[in-house]
Specification:
The protein has 273 residues and is an alpha+beta fold. It has 2 domains: 5-54; 71-257, Muramoyl-pentapeptide Carboxypeptidase, domain 2 (2-Layer Sandwich), CATH 3.30.1380. It is built from 8 helices and 7 strands; from the N terminus they run ααααβββαβαβαββα.
Length: 273
């Protein structure tokens, strides 16, 4: 007995639809299983395991520096510039005049002090007392850690600062009561990136008594990972007094005997003065 062709075609379509439905159910089951597995991982992740560790690594350490940048600090830096009656250097022509007159002196590399290679040679200058601080500080740091400091920035002109502000919204103004103290040549940025926790704390303890005496106005910048250090003109007198007394020009009687306090790691990033 021959089967009706229409019945055969209907049966074939039924089997085709059945197979498609089975495949769809299988795929749905796999997807559902994966979703449940994912939900299960998320449920236990607060208690620790791998996801908890991953989240810990992404958590930044609280930024808690000794020398926090502030408007008050900028005001003090500019007050010192005004006290010394120093000009804010407008352009390269004025900068060259100050170099020629000896009002600005070169920062030179040596065993204890390196300079960021991208820093324009025309801006590797500062005031004489600022260089005296760099010499004293780099020597003490080298004696303590047997590695050099690095200067990332020194004197700037108004023209350079104005250009900097175009692409860095955190840069200090080129004019006004909170203008960048780099414009007067009293300030240098010392690299903090790459320092260990102990080295950062040593630097903080070195600078703190100098700040308390009104010889430095340091800031630990949060975005640029540097110590921004404005040096008072009074540092020259302090340095000379130490030298005449036969004492090392250091706030420590013995840099090797510094007692390190519990560490605080600064999360690095702030504004570029």
């Amino acid at each position: 007995m021959h089967e009706n062709p229409a019945t055969t075609e209907a049966r074939s379509q039924y089997h085709f639809v059945k197979i498609r439905a089975q495949r769809a159910c299988f795929v749905l089951g796999v997807v559902l299983g994966l979703c449940l597995e994912a939900l299960g991982v998320q449920a236990v992740s607060p208690q620790g395991s791998h996801s908890g560790k991953r989240r810990t690594h992404l958590h930044r350490v609280k930024w808690n520096p000794v020398f926090r940048p502030s408007r008050e600090s900028l005001l003090r830096q500019n007050e010192e510039i005004d006290r010394l009656a120093l000009p804010r250097i407008h352009d390269d022509a004025q900068l060259r005049q100050l170099v020629a007159s000896g009002d600005l002196v070169p920062i030179e590399e040596n065993e204890t002090l390196h300079i960021e290679r991208r820093l324009d040679p025309s801006r590797r200058y500062c005031r004489p007392w600022t260089r005296a601080f760099l010499d004293d500080f780099s020597e003490a740091y080298y004696q303590q850690f047997h590695s050099p400091i690095q200067v990332n920035s020194a004197v700037r002109t108004v023209v350079v600062q104005r250009k900097l502000r175009r692409h860095n919204r955190n840069a200090a103004p080129e004019s006004g009561e909170t203008a960048s103290s780099h414009l007067a040549g009293i300030t240098v940025d010392i690299q903090r990136r790459g320092m260990t926790r102990q080295q950062i704390q040593w630097v903080e303890q070195y600078m703190l008594p100098l700040k308390e005496q009104g010889l430095l106005e340091p800031e630990e910048e949060r975005r640029q990972w540097v110590f921004h250090v404005a040096v008072s003109g009074r540092y020259a007198d302090w340095h000379e007094a130490k030298t005449l007394a036969g004492e090392p020009p250091s706030p420590f009687s013995d840099p090797g005997q510094v007692e390190f306090l519990p560490q605080r790691v600064s999360d690095v990033r702030s504004f570029d003065q």
